[in-house]
Amino acid sequence: MSYKAIFTREWVRSFLVALVLLGLAVVFQFYASIYSARVSSNFVNDILLDNLPVVNLNFVIIEGALAAIAGSIVLLLVKPKYIVFALKAAAIFIATRAVFVAATHVGIYPGQINPSTGFFDRIYTGLGLEAGFFFSGHVGLTFLMALIFWDERLWRYLYIALALVFGVSVLLAHIHYTIDVLAAPYMTYAIFKISEYFFKEDYKVIT
Q: Rounded to whole angstroms, how far apart are CA atoms 181 and 46?
């Protein structure tokens, strides 16, 4: 579907609403991460992290995440019929995760690989992508994109593969607990269905 076919007054209105929702969600996440960092308690033991060596996979976790975001933006621009629903679903995802981040005060697991001070690291931390534990944003957002592009086999499999790569990477780098990674697909699927329910007209455009 081309821009000419979808560029109506209703689409523009819905797109602006999506941008507002996404902006509010990002602000909510920002303050939730600040609150969580201030009140976080001790770390807890984890059956996988207790037995896995710490591996520095920041290139995958930071540069890979930023590349995935940039690539997703390009993909949405190429396939504009997905833009509005994807933005609204992402807003629900970010806001929902912010609630869980604010409610979960588990401390950082010992040996966690933190971002350095490089250019991409500063972008990563500036966007607040390292904030919070439950549930994994790396796994969740890529799986959300897989659900959005489910009917397009190439993109579905690519995003599922990215979710798996990110899941393994954040565990080996000890920046997420096992439950953060395992719960992410289930939480994301629920968020997708909630988005489908509340944004029926936008969802119809992509089906």
A: 12
